[in-house]
Amino acid sequence: MTHFLALLLYSLLVSIVFAALSSEHQTPQARLKYVVKVFGYFVLLGLAIAWVLYPLPL
Amino acid sequence: MPSDNLTEKSPASFDPAVADELRPVVIPGSRRILVCVAALVLPGLGHLLLGKRGRALVIFLGIAAMFVLGFVMEGHLFTPVRKEWLTWFFSFLDTGIGLPYFVCLALDFGFKVEPAQAARITFEYGNTFLMVAGALNMLATMDAYDIAIGRKV
What is the spatial distance between Cα B130 and Cα B44, in angstroms, rounded to a whole number? Predict the structure, then answer.
């Protein structure tokens, strides 16, 4: 298990549950689009935060 | 030919099954409590009682997968420790998963931390997965309540 795989698994599972709970996306297609969108945001933001934190002596 | 407003305003691809699914249903007060308790006890059970089978399955599988992966990543469940306020917060999130937390507590499974376990790179991820699984089930419970009172479909 790597950090990146953990990020992918976390993003996927949370975005799936978010889509199931969303009130604005009622059809399966709309929910699937929402899963892809939220998953993408999670991964991109995770990588961006990792990039910003990388030079810091933590 | 008789028609209702819904039919007249709908597009050509009108699907009555989808329209039924989107119609809010209000259930009696006593049953709302049952739905909320069921949703807290086991992920997806509240939605199942409301007849939202597909959503119940997705919620159950998503949250159960997070819970299992939390242990696979060597995470552990928390119990409140006096003077360590973060353990109270983490325990609160962990208990959100409902019955599985208390089964683990009764079996004394997943609460002890070995030094080798804490040294793994996925240890904190595992803890996070377990806590987020509980938090997501709390959200699912609120969603089930909203459906039960007719605020959501």
Answer: 17
